[in-house]
Amino acid sequence: MRIRLDYGSEGLEVDLPDERVTIIEPSFVPAIDNPHAALIAELRAPIGRPPLRDIVRPGQKIAISVCDITRAQPREAMLRALFEEMPGINPNDITILIATGTHRTNTRAELEYMLGHNILANYTVINHDSRDDSSLAYVGDTKTGAPTYVNRNWLAADVRITTGFVEPHFFAGFSGGAKMVAPGLAGLKTVLVLHDAKRIGSPNATWGVIDGNPVQDDIREIARTTGVTFSIDVTLNRDQEITGVFAGELFAEHRQACLFSKKSVMYPVDSLFDVVLTTNSGYPLDQNLYQAVKGMSAAAKVIKPGGTIVCAAECRDGLPNHGSYGELLASRPTAAALLDMINAPGFSRPDAWQVQVQAQIVMKSKVLVKNSFMTDHEIRAAHFEPVHDIGKSVSAALNAAGPEATLGVLPQGPQTIPYLR
């Protein structure tokens, strides 16, 4: 059979065997007919909050948190709806904060792509920098001892609005919601604890789990403590079109968004697979190897021990130029050694959480990576095996697993999260 994988901006056509293959895709949810009208309607009738226009007043300083370039959020549409429902507010009183977390700064070209020329030209837009201590303020520790450093511009605002895109997340349960405060606008010292080995190693720190997830527990406490005035999240289909809008009180609206998302993207299977072919949902989500770990993590939910994961991610940015991801990977010869290092008492480095998840996957299965921008040497240095022809690689893995071997395929990667029924 011939199937299209989400890969970069153009996609990738591959030939796969016809037998013992399960295609795992999200239930297609049609786009809302009039997204702008839907956004406005939710802002006027939110969950657990008065209408937005009854909350904001001229003269107030307003901070709005939006996703960075690694997320497919419809930022411009959401921001325009917010501005429409804040009549009389001077654009000079609004600051748009790019919730980069520990990711790199977004370029001017990326900001224009994300926000549109007019918004970028007429509003203050700031890339959050988790490593710039002068831009952060300490607001105390969480109940579990996580030191809380948050962006000063966010804390100084009279009105704080989060905007997000909700989908399952490989260790935070779901994206959006409180993540738009921490780690989105948090300091590196905070993120290192939120994503430490103990929290990431918890069985509840996984796809689709909010309640009892130790990562979410601290994230939500930070958002609650620092204060979010209003929140709006959307869900998207595989064409990156808006399928649902949820607005109002942060935790109430986010819970509804998560329930809506789970119905369409969590996919039960009856048995584990010998081989799983996955992607990282195409650009912008597959722009580097660090992000591609999410697609591998989705596949790992349904791979047999000792099975083979084949991940197709374009990786136009190669290794990310933030944190310590590449350096950490290169520092130890095996996945087991990486886990020993990360789990050692007192160990704390940026991006260790991603390396930890990756090493856990590699300990369970062989991982092959198809990309278009990294060398074979770079892929091997990251503890993966490079491949160039997906069809041949999948067939070889199936042949090695035996005549009854099964194949699971996630064409949209982590837009669908499979789990054993």
Describe this structure in words.
The chain has 421 residues and is an alpha/beta fold. Helix content is 33%, strand content 24%. It is built from 16 helices and 20 strands. It has helices spanning 35-44, 52-55, 75-84, 108-115, 117-122, 152-156, 188-194, 197-200, 214-226, 250-265, 289-300, 325-330, 335-342, 352-364, 376-381, 390-401, and strands at residues 2-5, 12-15, 21-23, 62-67, 94-99, 124-127, 136-141, 147-151, 159-165, 168-169, 173-174, 230-236, 242-248, 266-269, 273-279, 303-312, 366-370, 385-386, 407-410, 417-420. The strands form six sheets. The protein has a six-stranded parallel beta sheet, with helices on both faces. A six-stranded mixed beta sheet has the order 6-5-4-9-12-13, sandwiched between helices. The two termini are 26 Å apart.
Q: Please tell me how large the radius of gyration is.
A: 21 Å
Q: Average the pLDDT over all residues and give the rounded result.
A: 95
User: Strands across the major sheet, in which order?
Assistant: 3-19-15-16-17-18
Principal-axes geometry comes out as globular
Number of helices: 16
Instruction: Tell me the span between the first and last alpha carbons.
Output: 26 Å
Instruction: State the total count of DSSP E strands.
Output: 20
User: What helical percentage do the residues reach?
Assistant: 25-40%
How would you summarize the topology of this molecule?
Elements lengths: L1 E4 L6 E4 L5 E3 L11 H10 L7 H4 L6 E6 L7 H10 L9 E6 L8 H8 L1 H6 L1 E4 L8 E6 L5 E5 H5 L2 E7 L2 E2 L3 E2 L13 H7 L2 H4 L13 H13 L3 E7 L5 E7 L1 H16 E4 L3 E7 L9 H12 L2 E10 L12 H6 L4 H8 L9 H13 L1 E5 L5 H6 L3 E2 L3 H12 L5 E4 L6 E4 L1
Parallel strand pairs: 3-19, 4-5, 4-9, 5-6, 9-12, 14-20, 15-16, 15-19, 16-17, 17-18
Antiparallel strand pairs: 1-2, 7-8, 10-11, 12-13
